[in-house]
Amino acid sequence: MYKNDGYVRRYSERFKLKVLAELAKGNHSKRQIALTYGVQSSTINEWIRKYDRKDLMNIRVTVQTDDEISRIKALQKELKQLKDLLIKKDLEKLVMESYLEVAAENLGYKDVEELKKNLNIEP
């Protein structure tokens, strides 16, 4: 493969069509053809657009039923609720740690662990 060496490469129409024909056969992937002919995959994509060969583009088709869509929406809602609960739990833990630090300092303990030990608080 060529790096940007300052040269502008121009390919003939015949070469471009040959590469597209090779791709259309389906024996090799776009990447393999690009490596074989020494061109970038993005260049091949440009040729596909230029010659209106949308059949050669990598197109993702997703078919979903109404049940699948409603299930996805329900899962997204549940995920949001779980994220919110996790954030709330983390904030509560942070607040509790802060309270314990202040309490340990005010009650004369050397650290929070000593306070937790004396109050039988699980770490």
Notes on the protein architecture:
The chain is built from 5 helices and no strands. By secondary structure, the protein is an all-alpha fold. Helix 4 (66-107) packs across helix 5. 65% of the residues lie in helices and 0% in strands. It has 2 domains: 13-56; 66-118.
What are the SSEs and their pairings?
Layout: H1 13-25, H2 30-37, H3 41-50, H4 66-107, H5 112-118
Helix pairs in contact: 4-5
Looking at this protein, list some descriptive labels.
single chain, 123 residues, mainly alpha, 5 helices, 0% strand, elongated
Q: Could you provide a short overview of the structure?
A:
This protein is mainly α and 123 residues long.
Give helix and strand order, one letter per element, not per position: HHHHH
From the spread of the alpha carbons, the general shape counts as elongated
Helical content band: 55-70%
Averaged pLDDT = 86
Overall radius of gyration: 31 Å
For the biggest sheet, the summary is:
none
Quaternary assembly: single chain
- Separation of the first and last Cα atoms: 59 Å
Instruction: Provide the structure class.
Output: mainly alpha
Domain module tally: 2
Uncertain regions spanning at least 5 consecutive residues: none
The strand count comes to 0
| Number of discrete helical segments | 5
Quote the beta fraction.
Answer: under 5%
